[in-house]
Write a structure and sequence with these properties.
It is built from nine helices and 19 strands. With about 475 residues, it is of the alpha+beta class.
Length: about 475
Amino acid sequence: MDCCNVRCGLIAGAVFGALVAILGGVLIPLGDSVIQGTVKKESVIEPGTTAYENWVATGGKVYRQFWFFDLQNPVDVVEKGAIPLVKEKGPYTYWTRYLPKENITFNDNQTVSFMLPLGAIFEPSLSVGPEEDNITTLNLAVAGAYSLVPEDAHGMLNLAIWASKSSLFQTRPIKELLWGYKDPMLKTTLGFFSPYNGTYDGFYTVYNGKDDISKVGIIDRWRGERSLSFWNDTYCDMINGTDASSFPPFVDKKKPLYFFASDICRSVSASFERTMDLKGIEVNRYTLQPDTMASPTVNPNNQCFCRNPIVTKNCTMAGVLDISSCQAGQPIYISLPHFLYGSQDLQENVHGLSPSEEHHFTFMDVEPITGFTLRVAKRIQVNMMYGPSKAIKVLKNVKEYTIFPLVWMNETASLDQETADMFKRELFSRIKMLEIIQNSFMGIGVALFVTCLISYCVVRRREKTTV
């Protein structure tokens, strides 16, 4: 009778252990469902959610760091046709994106519209010098007029350059070069990013994710339109993805992330590179691919981005994007810093450049469960073009078209420790707790089941031996 009780107890223990292990297994999809439900609820862009609070006003500080290309031999370039020699100077750092979104309007259950105010505050402690530091660079008025004025009117342009005592190059404080100065030739305000302070980017309309969380943050319209009008091509004029500050939750690293960048007038994509640790949070790093700026001969999709076959040598040049169509005709070319991934011609026509993947590529570190971008470094370079002219004195010795680097910037942001701790406390601690409970149930259940089963076998063997 005692042996029977022992065997029954062991069988019951094994059954109980199996049930506990099964319960642990059942908790896995149940826990995942709870997590997904919470994330989906908090990712919707509407008042009261975590996403909304971070969406209205950027939590962490966003900086724009500027490195200028200080021309060392302006006289030799103009008088002897020498190759420009530049020296990088920077960073000069500004705090941007500190203003919350304005004119927030909930249109329906699917979209929300807003304006993004622009502003920049100088950060001396994060800069190599004051805003009054002088830089010798290309004369924006001369280079711009050269591209806009027909060749048969170059004689008149030459007179305007002479009368205003202008030249191909100029020396000005970085504050003026960035945000604006009164040009003596054009009698108007010019600057790399003028006007900026007090202006807006938008009007944006994005999906709020309420009806479909897989579309949250994705841009529906920009300036009231679902496509661009800069490239005269359906593919190049597409507005794809988000603004890169966040992506729909539960990111699949096998798929690229798409985002629209208004400052380069196009949409781009980034691909998964590797998994990293950021302040104790696992993030996926996505990087801009080299073929993003490849020539159409390498990436046929870029054919519609080729606007000037003369400058780009019949669209065989890689590494630059002509955005003059969205810059009122100004000969602005966008590239990666130091012409990273660009054609050899770009390096040969300007000396002093040293492209580096480590320092000059663009990346985003995205938390895959929430889709939030927790660290970003968007690096782009602004260039202008000038070329030869028989009628313009300051261009007579120029031998060929040159894409001259003006400045490159790194728009960077990273979550601070307080936000990281909140992230871990509000989301990952719950996930960890669920994992501990699941693993504990499964571990205890399996251990109990195996122990009871082995004990049962031992008891049965002893009984047979006794008999």
